Every structure is written in C-alpha cells, then in structure tokens.
C-alpha cells in the first residue's frame, strides 16, 4: 500500500468516489489530490486534497479526505493526511488547516482546535462558508504532525473488506444481441 499524487487517469474514480461518499468539490482539479493504492491489486483505497487559498493572506487546507467503506479502519486515511501535509510543506506552508466536524479524527495527528475569533479574516470567512454545509465544523491547525504507530502498522497490512453489495453481472456478447457461434463475414471466432 502506498500514497501517490493523483494522475489524470484517476479523475473518473475520484469523481465517482467523491459523489459516493457525499463530498461536494466544486473546484475539482485532480492535480490537487493524492490517491492511496494497494500494490498487489492496484485498487484505489482512499484520497485527499490539498487546497491552497490565494489572496492577501494565503493559507493551505487539507480537505476531501475519503476512504471507501471496504478500506476503512486500516490507516489509509492517516497516510493520505500524512502525504497531504508533506505536500503542503513542499509548497512552503508551515501552517496547515482543516475545517470539519470530524475534528476528533484530525487531533490524533497533531491538529489543534482554533477559536474562530482568533483566525485571520480570510480564514474565518472560509470557515463560515464551510459551516453552511457542515454545521459542526470547526477550524483545526496542525502543529507538529505525528502518525499514531497503530495506524502505521495497520496500513502495512491493509486489505479490502468484502463488500456486502452484490456485484453487477458481467455483460457478455449475447447481452448485446450477438451470437458468438454464428459465422459472419467479419467473424474472428477461430473455433471450428
């Protein structure tokens, strides 16, 4: 299992999974995302976004961290957050924010709650916009990032849990009205 920067070919999966998990990313750009991948199966296991807010007082936000149900509780989200923090540091941000009602999750990595009254105006305004969709959202600011050892260990052995949903049946040529046994002018059926 590893986390890498998203590529253009990840866009469809990202958009589908954002929708599946109920995220609304109106400013979607795949280059802002990282993706967690299982090395053995090449399955995507999670994602997250770093968003740089430009302006008079620029700031960096970690947002849209998501893990499909079958990959949860295995440290995937934690490693996505770690990769996003690394990217923020590379982009020159010593301070990284997150705005969410899931602030308890963020606290295990070193994020601390910040009173909205002590935030710079631009960040406070952004928090108010986030609260329009997430009533319980608060601002948390990262001090020193730390990865809980239990999450590092879980990530090393992460495997997808069985999905409780039935899989769609695989479509065959007959589903499209094509009889593979019939000989046609363009037949590539070499069985005789």
From TrEMBL:
It holds the Pfam family Acetyltransf_1. Residues 153-192 are annotated as: Disordered. Residues 1-134 form the N-acetyltransferase domain. Signal peptide: none annotated. Keywords: Acyltransferase, Transferase. Its EC number is 2.3.-.-. One of its GO terms (molecular function) is acyltransferase activity. InterPro entries: Acyl_CoA_acyltransferase, GNAT_dom. It is an enzyme of class 2 (transferase). This is GNAT family N-acetyltransferase. The lineage of its organism: Archaea, Methanobacteriati, Methanobacteriota, Stenosarchaea group, Halobacteria.
């Amino acid at each position: 299992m590893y986390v890498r920067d998203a590529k253009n070919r990840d866009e469809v999966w990202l958009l589908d999974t954002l929708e599946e998990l109920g995220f609304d990313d109106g400013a979607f750009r795949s280059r802002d995302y990282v993706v967690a991948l299982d090395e053995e199966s090449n399955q995507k296991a999670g994602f997250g976004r770093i968003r740089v807010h430009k302006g008079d007082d620029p700031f960096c936000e970690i947002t849209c961290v998501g893990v499909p149900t079958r990959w949860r509780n295995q440290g995937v989200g934690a490693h996505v957050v770690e990769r996003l923090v690394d990217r923020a540091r590379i982009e020159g941000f010593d301070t990284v924010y997150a705005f969410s009602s899931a602030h308890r999750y963020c606290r295990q990595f070193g994020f601390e709650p910040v009173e909205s009254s002590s935030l710079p105006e631009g960040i406070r305004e952004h928090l108010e916009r986030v609260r329009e969709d997430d009533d319980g959202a608060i601002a948390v600011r990262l001090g020193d990032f730390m990865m809980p050892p239990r999450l590092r260990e879980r990530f090393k052995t992460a495997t997808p849990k069985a999905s409780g949903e039935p899989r769609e049946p695989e479509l065959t040529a007959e589903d499209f009205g094509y009889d593979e046994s019939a000989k046609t002018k363009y037949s590539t059926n070499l069985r005789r």
